[in-house]
Specification:
Elements: H1 2-14, E1 22-27, E2 30-36, H2 41-52, H3 54-63, E3 68-79, E4 82-94, E5 97-102, E6 117-120, E7 125-132, E8 135-138, H4 140-147, H5 151-161
Antiparallel strand pairs: 1-2, 3-4, 3-7, 4-5, 5-6, 7-8
Helix pairs in contact: 2-4
């Protein structure tokens, strides 16, 4: 289960993007982090779509469907330089609030650390995802980064993560 998102996160970090709007921060022994400006229209559109479709995530999470696994939300943490978006997994809902475990090693924020269990504020959600029979559902920001890869990089990415990412 967890291997899907971990592979997805690591592989996004290992593939280079040929887009001037995307920067890469390399970290010794950790997956790279891709950065985009807050004016990146395509990424902002992906975040907007994720928020507009969050009900689909909730429905799937509550469904109990055994084919659905690895539910995760990407959440924004404000930093002095802007914001850092981090995946949070093992999502549960209690009293209409999301809770989960920080699944990425933060680079800029000191508000959380890897492995922390946190409450996720609805206003800070920037993406959602789950796996449905090896198909990525949601993952709109992942799709933007994947679409910025060269054809060869995308092919390698798809082969290595084992997920089906439909357009």
């Amino acid at each position: 289960m967890k291997q899907y998102l971990l592979k997805l996160i690591i592989l996004i970090g290992l593939v280079s993007c040929n887009n001037n709007q995307t920067t890469k921060i390399e970290r010794d022994g950790e997956p790279e982090i891709y950065g985009v400006t807050d004016t990146d229209a395509e990424m902002n559109g992906a975040i907007k779509t994720a928020n507009q479709t969050l009900a689909k995530f909730n429905e799937a999470l509550k469904s109990g469907n055994p084919n659905f696994e690895y539910f995760a939300l990407k959440t924004r943490f404000n930093t002095p330089d802007g914001a850092e978006h981090i995946w949070v997994s093992n999502i549960t809902i209690k009293d209409n609030k999301y809770f989960g475990v920080v699944d990425n090693l933060p680079e800029s924020t000191t508000a959380v650390k890897l492995g922390d269990t946190i409450q996720i504020k609805d206003d800070n959600i920037s993406d959602w995802m789950y796996i449905d029979n090896q198909r990525l559902r949601g993952g709109y920001t992942i799709r933007v980064l994947r679409n910025r890869m060269t054809e060869q990089e995308r092919k390698q990415f798809d082969e290595e993560n084992g997920l089906i990412i439909e357009n």
